[in-house]
TrEMBL record:
The keyword Transit peptide does not apply. Belongs to the DeSI family. One of its GO terms (biological process) is protein modification by small protein removal. This is PPPDE domain-containing protein. It comes from Danaus plexippus plexippus.
Length: 574
């Protein structure tokens, strides 16, 4: 489970030599080495690291190494705790078992780097991961192997693939999980209580304002026969409502939260949910009839049936599943219908919360996004299915963050990253001549623009997305597509200072669309305000008279233009 604020992710950095490396390295190596680094990832109140006994979990800072040499904040994760647990269990039973541990080549730092990428898209500093290759020549590595082995923190026997720093009974582990679930449920409940209290207070204020307006403001309570609620009564009413809410909503220690109890995003994403997973799987099976599939590929097809049709968790998808997907997407001998069916199956899978576990298995070959990067060479049906898949990945915070990762990788050409590929697919869809592609492309544009991301790379792609949105606006699109483009521009203007300048230089002027959609007036006020501020800064704080892009000061009590006079600040009201 995840809260709306997310969970902090820290990197604990330890010096295995306790300062000896700094003292002795000039004599032994002929150069200064600050330390021999051991790292652990701290998230959800636990410290996770990898050693000769496998993956270990303990209370933060409770290993025999003592306090960490340095603590570095990696970021914030929105990955649900059960999904994270399943991911750690998968690592502990596959690539990070005790038998696979090698102190200098496959160690705690590689484990921390992989976990950090999964939970928040961050990386362990490169000088730590590559320390063995950089600081230790091969002869010295062998000599230091035995000396350093006993310094790595150890743990107790394994339970479910993950080692713990003390011998925990199964009952204790179950209780620990229940406590964690109850803690997260309590946080969600507190957030809902706060929201409910705010809504009740706003409702009472609106009622009181309306009552005073109707009754003259003097004797509204007496003439109307009602009782005016004071602050104490309002608070008491909020507490009573919260009590009812608690009885309905508090999940038990081992009960998953109801779907409507989960915190809603500020700007709900646009999703395409009218895709039948059962029908798409049957279409995929039919498209693959007569295709020579090996044993692993047939098993992967069966696993997809269990996941998509039978509703099993992502744990049923084996390590070879993405290799099977990659073969279907890249094999030119297969019919295009097979690729379309596979992508539409992935569209359905993207609506599930645990799909992020599948996506993170693609970090080695990048089969999905390598295929997506060539969207301009694909048939229209494949382009549409690909766009729908990427749009639906915004149904969950973890899968949408995967689309916006900034770590670079190579697919046989120039360096790429997930966010670069996502941007290319988005721009292609927005500017496509086919109406269906434009519909999906503008949905992806809106989802990307309204995603809360704060990276330098995202500031750079804002310009590309802005240019695509402006070009779409100039082509007289349908009302819904125009609204998505304007909403995206308003959000992009918050992410990057370059966006208002581009709107001013390139056009079209946002005020030209004032009456094209029922909800555009608020978006246009937001855009016009930023555009006006940009023009003032360019002209040396000289207000532009008679320019269509300036803020609007029309005084009116009408409900329809109230949004134009609202000071929207940094929020986008849709």
């Amino acid at each position: 489970m995840s809260t709306e604020e997310g969970e902090p992710v820290d990197l604990y950095i330890y010096d295995l030599t306790k300062g000896l490396a700094s003292l002795l390295s000039p004599t032994i190596l002929g150069r200064q080495v600050e330390g021999v680094w051991h790292t652990a990832v701290v998230v959800f109140g636990r410290e996770y690291f990898y050693g000769g006994g496998g993956v270990t979990s303990c209370a933060p800072g409770s290993t025999q190494l003592g306090a960490p040499y340095q603590v570095e904040r990696l970021g914030t994760t929105y990955v649900p705790f059960p999904v994270f647990q399943e991911y750690i269990q998968g690592l502990a039973t596959s690539s990070y078992t005790g038998q696979e541990y090698r102190l200098l080549e496959h160690n705690c730092n590689h484990f921390s780097d992989e976990v950090a990428q999964f939970v928040c898209g961050a990386r362990v500093p490169k000088h730590i991961v590559s320390q063995a290759e950089r600081d230790l020549p091969p002869p010295l590595r062998v000599a230091l192997q035995a000396a350093l082995d006993h310094l790595v923190p150890d743990g107790a026997p394994v339970y479910g693939g993950v080692r713990h720093s003390r011998r925990d009974s199964p009952d204790y582990l179950t209780l620990n999980d229940q406590i964690e679930e109850a803690r997260v449920a309590s946080q969600e409940l507190d957030a809902r209580r706060s929201t409910l209290a705010e809504k009740l207070a706003r409702k009472e204020r609106r009622k009181e304002k309306k009552r005073r307006k109707q009754m003259g403001g003097d004797q509204s309570g007496e003439e109307g026969g009602g009782v005016e609620l004071g602050p104490e009564d309002t608070e008491r009413g909020g507490e009573m409502s919260e009590a009812v809410e608690v009885l309905e909503a508090r999940p038990g220690p081992s009960t998953p939260p109801r779907e409507d109890d989960r915190p809603r995003p500020k700007d709900p994403p646009i999703l395409f949910k009218d895709i039948d997973g059962v029908a798409e799987y049957e279409a995929l099976v039919k498209a693959l009839e007569g295709v020579d599939l090996n044993e692993e590929e047939r098993r992967s097809l069966d696993e997809l049936q269990q996941y998509l049709v039978a509703g099993e968790g992502s744990w049923v998808l084996g390590d070879d599943f993405l290799a099977f997907v990659g073969r279907v997407l890249s094999d030119s001998c297969l019919a295009s219908a097979a690729r379309v069916s596979m992508l539409r199956c992935l569209c359905c899978a993207a609506l599930r919360e645990d799909v992020s576990l599948v996506l993170h298995q693609d970090r080695r070959h990048h089969a999905l996004l390598s295929y997506a990067y060539n969207i301009d060479r694909l048939p229209v049906d494949e382009q549409l299915a690909l766009l729908l898949f990427m749009v639906n990945l915004f149904s969950g915070p973890s899968s949408s963050e995967w689309l916006l990762y900034i770590s670079e990788w190579s697919a046989g050409g120039p360096p790429l990253s997930n966010i670069r590929v996502t941007t290319k697919v988005c721009v292609h869809g927005v500017l496509a001549p086919e109406p269906a592609l434009r519909d999906a492309g503008t949905a992806l544009l809106y989802n990307v623009a309204t995603k809360e991301v704060k990276t330098v790379v995202f500031d750079e792609v804002c310009v590309e997305l802005c240019m695509a949105a402006l070009q779409l606006c100039s082509s007289a699109p349908a009302e819904e597509l125009l609204w998505r483009a304007l909403a995206s521009l308003a959000r992009l203007a918050e992410h990057s200072h370059d966006v208002p300048q581009l709107v001013a230089l390139v056009g079209p002027d946002p005020s030209a669309f004032r009456y094209t959609h029922i909800n555009t007036h608020k978006l246009l006020h937001h855009l016009s305000t930023r555009l006006y501020m940009t023009r003032r800064s360019v002209q040396g704080d000289q207000p532009s008279s008679g320019r269509a892009g300036g803020p609007h000061h029309t005084e009116s009590s009408g409900e329809g233009v109230e949004g134009e006079r609202e000071e929207m600040g940094g929020d986008l009201y849709i």
